Amino acid sequence: MTSPPSFEEMWAELRPIGRSTRSGGYVRRPWTSATREMEHWFRAQATARGLRLEEDGFGNVVAWWDAPSSLAGGVLTGSHLDSVPDGGAYDGPLGVVSALAAIDRLRGRGFAPRRPLGVAVFAEEEGSRFGLACLGSRLATGLTTWAQARALTDRDGVRLGDVLAGGGPSLLSGIDAYVELHVEQGRGLMDLDAPVGVASGIWPHGRWRFDVGGVADHAGTTRMADRRDPMLTYAMTALAANKQARLAEGAGRGARATFGRVEVTPNGTNAVPSRVAAWLDARAESAEALDTLVGAITSQASARAERDGTTVAVTAESVSKAVEFDAALRGRLATGRPVLPTQAGHDAGVLQTAGIPSAMLFVRNPTGVSHSPDEHAEMPDCLAGVDALADVLQELVG
């Protein structure tokens, strides 16, 4: 029997899929040709290893290495295959490829599991299409119901319910633990000179939509004093977000605030816009700090709108509470490795919130850059991550 592809070979197979020839970044949008090709690749890799495939109606897939006579519930690893627009190669796929390679490591050691071991691919982790991050894992755990999610629409007006059937078997019933490997999205491990680290928990975070209304008019004939321009209100709101996050950091409270997506109507060069919709991504080290941050930004936006003669409506589209990963599981991973918090959301955080003991391994990112074509990890560090994952999985399922 031919041996399945190595980590390096699998990584080379994935690199071209969904890659932009212009920027070198990736556009792996959920339920489009690029992600379908990635999922087809995953199924082929699972089949090559004799793993049993199972999927639900939410786009999630698990490849199972079944135990001859299971003594307890299953253990899950894996990650996701979708990306943010023009994202990096490692965010998500590194965890999936490493999970498959870890199974190869275990088999190479002559190891046989005494409980089921699954490699999961969760759908729409980034929220880049339907706006709700970790959508697949939220639906799988029941933290978001199908009734709530099916009406979500993408930027083209396509409903999630028209893309997915919903429902199906529960992929997470009987799961006793989840371990996710992920590229670090920061420079913590670089500063600590460590190839692999462990996550302590995830900051609370969320996405808020700011709808700013004004009056459309001619850019040339309308006097400046007569305008009700929502772009001015939005511009000051974006500056306020930056200022409030910096003030929080200066006071010793960790905070992040970013407006990364804007839609302008009618979006004409020679027209005063009638509406600006903008999405705030805000994160902080505590729920109280996050509420204070978003409240201050909203207050400044409202004050500016009153001056501009515009309106502001703020809608929370998704908010995730702080997550502390399972202490016992985290302790198993942390032997001899640094432990550090993360400000990024992950499927592991969703599963931990749903009551499934979860933990995360991070692989060093020398640039510290993520959600960008410059995201990177060196091959020796990736292989060190595979070994670390294989070791903890052997302990959990052995």
UniProtKB/TrEMBL annotation:
Q: Which residues are in coiled coils?
A: none
The cross-references to InterPro entries, in alphabetical order and at most eight, read: Amidase_Cbmase, Bact_exopeptidase_dim_dom, Peptidase_M20
Alphabetic keyword roster: Hydrolase
Which Pfam families would you find in this protein's record? Peptidase_M20 (PF01546)
Please state which protein family the record places this protein in: Belongs to the peptidase M20 family.
The UniProt entry, under PANTHER family, shows: ALLANTOATE AMIDOHYDROLASE (PTHR32494:SF5), ALLANTOATE DEIMINASE-RELATED (PTHR32494)
> By what name is this protein known?
Allantoate amidohydrolase
Organism of derivation:
Nocardioides eburneus
